[in-house]
Structures are given as C-alpha cells and as structure tokens.
C-alpha cells in the first residue's frame, strides 16, 4: 500500500460537502504528509519510499480489488472506491470525516483515551494508529485544521504505507 492507501483510509473516514457557511482552515504544516509535499528530498526514516509502479493500473483501477462494502463510521463505499482506486489527484471534500460520518460520535470525545486503528479500505490492513503520543483532543484539533484525519510519523504503520518520491 502507499499513500493512496492512506487516502483509502481517509476516504473511509472522510469526504462530502462542507457545511453551508463553513470556512476552510488555512493549510498548516504539522505532520509528515505536509512535509512530503515540499520540494526538498530525500525523505529519511521512518518514511518508506515506494516505486511509481505501485500506482499502475490493476484489475480495479490502481488496486487489485474494490473497497470493502461495509466501511466503518457510515462511510460511503462508492465514494471511497472512486477516490481510492480511480483517482490520484483529489481526496474527499474537507470536513467529510467530521460532518458526514459517525467517526467522532462512535470513537469518543476530546477526553477519550486509547488508540483507534485505521484500516485500508481495500485490503483491510492496518495503516494508522491514532492518536499515538498525543491526546485525543490534539488529534481532533489537528484533523479539523486539515479537514480530514491527520496522522503523524509515529502513527503510520510503515509495514503497509508507502510514499512515492514526489510525495504522493
């Protein structure tokens, strides 16, 4: 899996329209994925670089299989499948994870303790564990600033996540 798998999780956690009148937060550099968008390279540990071929066409877009039918948090499988398997340029709309899914209701409040495991929507492999090394409140606050769940280096499962040399 690679960053596209991260998008799979994000899709399964995030993606619809902003609430009417909602403002989009300005971009804030806070984590690994923001840093990867910069023009400087190479990326050091813990980043695992993948080859471009992992995004080549397969039986179902850029994946061998479609997303699972029953996604957590009332996420739309059709939207997740479109974003995760047939798209390399965009993700779900800012705020989907917060306003359209049941993620926050099911996983807790700002005082929640423990980690949530985020799985690849296609394969079911664990990709992220969060919050790790920070509070639930910090995780939610940073995710709101980004518009979708935001993961830090320590929260990435590098056994299954890969990043292309261009930061994708």
Strand order of the largest sheet: 1-2
| Count of alpha/pi helices | 6
Q: Rg from C-alpha positions?
A: 15 Å
Structural class call reads mainly alpha
Query: How widely separated are the two ends?
Result: 12 Å
How much strand content do the residues show?
Answer: 5-15%
Detail the poorly predicted runs.
1-29
What is the element string, with H for helices and E for strands?
A: HHHHHEEH
The backbone outline, from C-alpha atoms, is globular
SSE layout and pairings?
Blueprint: H1 3-13, H2 32-36, H3 77-85, H4 96-99, H5 103-107, E1 116-119, E2 126-130, H6 136-146
Antiparallel strand pairs: 1-2
Helix pairs in contact: 1-3
Overview of the molecule:
- With 168 residues, this protein is mostly helical.
- Helices cover 27% and strands 5% of the residues.
- It is globular.
- The termini are close together.
List the defining traits of the structure above.
single chain, 168 residues, mainly alpha, two-stranded antiparallel ribbon, 2 strands, 5% strand, disordered N terminus
In short:
The protein has 168 residues and is mainly alpha-helical. The protein contains 6 helices and 2 strands, in the order αααααββα.
